[in-house]
């Protein structure tokens, strides 16, 4: 099955929104069971400012659908989201 990368950039000034929706996001990740790797992107101050998520799903539409249902997305956290097929080579 292919892997898909989601590169998500938070809206400026959205750190508190991220923090208040983080538990729901982590619960969604655990419940869906298709996240191969994930973690926050950090800004220059070391604060969370986005997300990098690698999904193990059948196709890009499934990746986009997963992303659309993520509590972060539903809360309006992201300024931009890029979804692209990703090929694991190392690790």
Automatic annotation (TrEMBL):
It comes from the Bacteria. InterPro entries: Dimeric_a/b-barrel, Sec-metab_biosynth-assoc, YCII. Residues 3-87 form the YCII-related domain. Pfam families: YCII. Belongs to the YciI family. This is YCII-related domain-containing protein. It comes from Roseinatronobacter bogoriensis subsp. barguzinensis. The lineage of its organism: Bacteria, Pseudomonadati, Pseudomonadota, Alphaproteobacteria, Rhodobacterales.
């Amino acid at each position: 099955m292919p892997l898909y990368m989601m590169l998500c950039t938070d809206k400026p000034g959205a750190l508190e929104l991220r923090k208040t929706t983080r538990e729901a996001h982590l619960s969604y990740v655990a419940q869906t069971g298709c996240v191969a790797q994930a973690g926050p992107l950090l800004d220059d101050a070391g604060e969370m400012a986005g997300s990098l998520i690698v999904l193990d799903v059948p196709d890009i539409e499934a990746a986009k659908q997963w992303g659309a249902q993520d509590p972060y997305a539903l809360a309006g956290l992201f300024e931009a989201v890029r979804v692209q097929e990703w090929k694991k080579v190392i690790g």
